[in-house]
Design brief:
single chain; 407 residues; alpha/beta; Aspartate Aminotransferase, domain 1; Aspartate Aminotransferase, domain 2; 2 domains; 7-stranded mixed sheet; 4-stranded antiparallel sheet; binds D-malate
Length: 407
């Protein structure tokens, strides 16, 4: 008899976005003539920037020639990409991150899900509520929680993100070990100031905690005062791991490329109190379980940092930010309170009623797919998330339909 990992039984039946897809597919099969507009999962719609396409083509041609063909690459990523990342995303902003501290991967979802493997089962984990479900579910799978009671797992510390705190949690009164933070936030679209991030870095130093900082949406920040990386905060190099992705930045959701920064100065401890560099542990894990992102895809990611690439990426992000502005205007005109959509591609709308019912209503009456906030946690139960990732024409059409339905 094979015993299974019974922690899986504690999980809610399905992953949030699979549940939404199921409901949407059921609606579409009953109403095949209806034209759905998807503003649910944050999946990009616009093609890759031309600079990335050109780099992809060139790299594919290299793979066709004996002299330029590449087999296995370094698991951590090619130096050309790690160096471009370190220079452009960190050093140019005064954050002292070295190329050797960057681990290129196939997604921030996998990395934010896998990172918890480095830590003991006994740690206290703090997550925001609402939360990107991957942070929670992977800790449930690993056995770091009790069972779910009224939508919250026992043993997890939930950091409420509400209108009262502008959806930016303050450090808890109790000590916690691992802290997941995400800014610009998924799902609320809220951003954190330097002072707010500093309070978390100070807390982590004081309590010997580690911050797992998800910055997958940093490229949507336009306010120069807002930090784009936690490493812009003094001392963060000693207490934080950061996750980044090319998915939303440059439209790589189907191309797959991301990276995780593990500074060499972030330490964990053995039972005997000996310090262990998490960089060495993540390197060990990465080299054992991962064989690197494909060469053409890494060349395409490198092109994001070329002069042409930078301009094209900015234009791409501006298009989605423009969509977010259109959503904010339409939802605001209907009288709903909301956050996000500025410096962020997500708009978090207070519907004042059950989010799954609101989701069903928009699906059935406006044929617009959103994401019910209840799927992100208890604090989201009256909210829906609207994603700005779609074409301008679809966003305009969707807002027209929503206005007709909700007016
Ligand atoms: C989302 O819609 O929250 C994201 O697309 C999910 C993800 O990036 O995995």
């Amino acid at each position: 008899m094979i015993m299974v990992n019974e922690n899986y039984a504690k999980l809610q039946a399905s992953y949030l976005f699979s549940e939404i897809s199921k409901r949407v597919a059921a609606y579409q099969s009953e109403n095949p003539e209806k034209n759905l507009i998807r503003l649910g999962i944050g999946d990009v719609t616009e093609p890759l920037p031309p600079a990335c396409i050109e780099a992809l083509h060139l790299a594919v041609d290299e793979m066709a020639g004996r002299a330029t063909f590449r087999g296995y690459g370094p698991e951590q990523g090619y130096d050309f990409l790690r160096e471009a990342i370190a220079l452009n995303d960190f050093q140019s902003r005064g954050a002292g991150i070295d190329a050797s501290e960057i681990f290129v991967s196939d997604g921030a979802k996998c990395d934010t899900g896998n990172i918890q493997e480095l830590f003991s089962q006994k740690l206290t984990v703090a997550v925001p509520d609402p939360v990107y479900p991957v942070y929670v579910d992977t800790n449930v799978m690993a056995g770091r929680t009790g069972k779910a009671v009224r939508g919250r797992y026992q043993k997890l510390v939930y950091l409420d993100c509400t209108e009262e705190n502008n959806f930016v949690p303050t450090p808890p009164a109790v000590p916690v070990d691992l802290i997941y933070l995400c800014f610009p936030n998924n799902p609320t679209g809220a951003t954190a100031t330097r002072a707010e991030l500093k309070s978390w870095v100070d807390y982590a130093k004081e309590h010997q905690s580690i911050i797992l900082f998800d910055a997958a949406y940093e490229s949507f920040i336009r306010d120069p005062e807002l930090p784009r990386s936690i490493y812009e905060i003094e001392g963060a190099r000693d207490v934080a791991i950061e996750f980044r992705s090319f998915s939303k930045v440059a439209g790589f959701t189907g191309t797959r490329c991301a990276y995780t920064v593990v500074p060499k100065s972030v330490m964990g401890y053995t039972r005997k109190g000996e310090a262990v560099a998490l960089h060495a542990m993540w390197n060990r894990r990465h080299t054992t379980k991962f064989n690197g992102v494909s060469y053409p895809v890494q060349r395409a990611a490198e092109a994001v940092y070329s002069e042409a690439g930078k301009q094209q990426v900015k234009a791409l992000n501006d298009l989605y930010l423009g969509n977010a502005g259109i959503v904010r205007e339409a939802i605001g005109a209907l009288g709903y309170a909301m956050t996000g959509g500025v410096n962020s591609p997500y708009i978090w709308v207070n519907t004042g009623r059950d989010s799954w019912k609101f989701f069903d209503r928009l699906l059935a009456r406006a044929q617009v797919v959103t994401t019910p906030g209840g799927g992100f946690g208890r604090c989201g139960k009256n909210f829906i998330r609207i994603s700005a990732f779609n074409s301008r024409a679809n966003v305009e059409e969707a807002m027209g339909r929503i206005k007709r339905v909700l007016r």
